[in-house]
Amino acid sequence: MSFELERLFRVKNRSKRFLRKCTSRQCVSKLTIGEDIADLGGTILAYMAWKSEIGAAPLPDIDGLSPDKRFFIGFAQWACGSHRPEAARVTALTSQHSPSKYRVNGVVVNMPEFQKAFGCKAKQPMVKDTICKIW
Description:
- By secondary structure, the chain is an all-alpha fold.
- It has one domain (3-54, 62-117).
- It is 59% helix and 0% strand.
- The chain contains 6 helices and no strands.
- Helix 1 packs across helix 2 (29-54) and helix 2 crosses helix 5 (100-108).
- The longest helix has 26 residues, at 29-54.
- The radius of gyration is 16 Å and the shape is globular.
């Protein structure tokens, strides 16, 4: 198996584990794997581009939040919202996107930069023994 294919399977398996946690509904990871990979890759690229853009210029903490914390909070804010249980169930079964919570957590759990920004320690929920790397 090629290295790229092995990484794809790792992301897919991690995606399945997240999706199994979809409360009281069946999620279809075959539908979501492409978008799950795109979410992870896109966020990694956005973070790299942002870091490149700010360069060595130090950015201040604002309201007690470091620049890196603000990046990840900004990334996660699009997912805020609530859905009626019926709508969430239909979406989980038919959408090519994982439920919002898992789209966010499934990305940041694979980014050491997130763990560093928020001081996550080994064995905490947002730290995994192995992370999925696309590139």
